[in-house]
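Let us walk through a complete example step by step. Step one is to write down the protein sequence. Step two is to encode the small molecule, flavin-adenine dinucleotide, as a SMILES string so that its atoms and bonds are unambiguous. Step three, shown after the inputs, is the structure prediction itself.
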Amino acid sequence: MDLSYSPEEHAFQREVRGWLARNMPKREPDERPLDFHDPRRIARGKGWQRKLYEAGYVAMGWPRDYGGQGADVMRQTIVNEEMVRARAPGLIGLMGIQMVGPTLIAHGTEQQRRRHLPPILTAEEIWCQGYSEPGSGSDLASLRTRAELRGDEFVVNGQKVWTSNAQFADWIFCLVRTDPDAPKHRGISYLLIDMKSPGITVRPLVQMTGDAGFNEVFFEDVRVPRANLVGGLNDGWTIANATLFHERNMLGSTTRTQQVLQGLLRLARTHGRAGRPASADPAIRRRLADLAIRVETMKLEAYRQLTDTLRGRSPGIAASVSKLVTTELNHDLAEAALDILGSYGPLARGNRRARDGGTWPVDFMFTLGLIIGGGTSQIQKNIIAERGLAMPRELRA
Ligand SMILES: Cc1cc2nc3c(=O)[nH]c(=O)nc-3n(C[C@H](O)[C@H](O)[C@H](O)COP(=O)(O)OP(=O)(O)OC[C@H]3O[C@@H](n4cnc5c(N)ncnc54)[C@H](O)[C@@H]3O)c2cc1C
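Step three: the predicted structure of the complex.
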């Protein structure tokens, strides 16, 4: 692993740093991670992604034919690092950029790539993920949403649940059962569905954070052109897993984690306990040091994975390891903040005594959800054990 930048990469780093200093939008002090029911925030998020894209900083590695730059992975890494450093807002269209986009590049038809990739980059079209159903979460292959092929179109009936962002998404990548008689992993297909199609109903679900980050999505005789099938008919499980791999990489990214650690350290230096900053307390210092080491370890793990990518080596179970460790780390960071704040910890947005706009208690609840979404910690441990450590497979019903 080589951690140094070449002279060209250093020059690019300076360019990105300068651009961010000139262009970064002002962040709301109490901005909540899931608060996307506010149309102004959606418009701001789209505007920011578009600006980053126009500057050439979004999905830089995507092929030029589809709006990317074919850049090497180091350039995107530099952009990501500079965004952490500047505490820049993230991208609103992450599910498009980090999940369905790479899946279409690998498995989509030429027509699907040309149609969908450019508006994903510019945030003109936002995507959501239609995998989970009532009764089908960890055991995803048991899903029952049915798609019947009639002539040149599928007719979809069923229900998805926990669908993040569905209330403002333009498209959904969706797993549907196309052969109910086949063994459960072999009768599934992967469809791209326009959320404006007649027969789709979205019902937001309010979470313990108080925000409606995810939704129920109902399909009633929804007609989907056959051309929106990704991969082969009944071959959706392979494609679904390709997207899941990208999702775990996204959730395992330390970009947000590093920003949160910075915020936690600021809090510990400025929040008083018994007349001294919390950071002067030896027990808190030890806990902060432990968290900072864990964050640094995951940053180095990301560099290790980057080296593997640059050398063309298979990532193996790396995405599951990052997802497992980073999502739990994010939750531990928020928990440390609440402990530092003591009785101020639960004070939420709107309370004049709340610290950092009351974001810490929301973050504590939000990060718990990320341990579950994208496959729970237990499921990641199963994958690591079975596929990484070659341990015996668990007994399944
Ligand atoms: C914040 C958030 C956002 C989400 N966004 C989306 C989205 O956009 N699209 C989407 O499709 N889904 C989404 N989900 C759903 C998510 O993928 C599921 O919640 C998750 O896969 C777990 O499924 P479940 O909730 O049905 O729990 P269950 O599968 O019922 O699991 C219940 C418990 O049993 C454990 N368990 C289950 N099976 C095993 C096993 N084999 N071995 C050991 N332990 C096991 C689990 O770890 C868990 O603790 C989201 C979830 C959250 C929390």
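Step four is interpretation. The pocket of flavin-adenine dinucleotide is lined by residues 128-132, 137-138, 162-164, 214, 369, 372-373, 375-376, 378-379, 382, 394 (CB under 6 Å).
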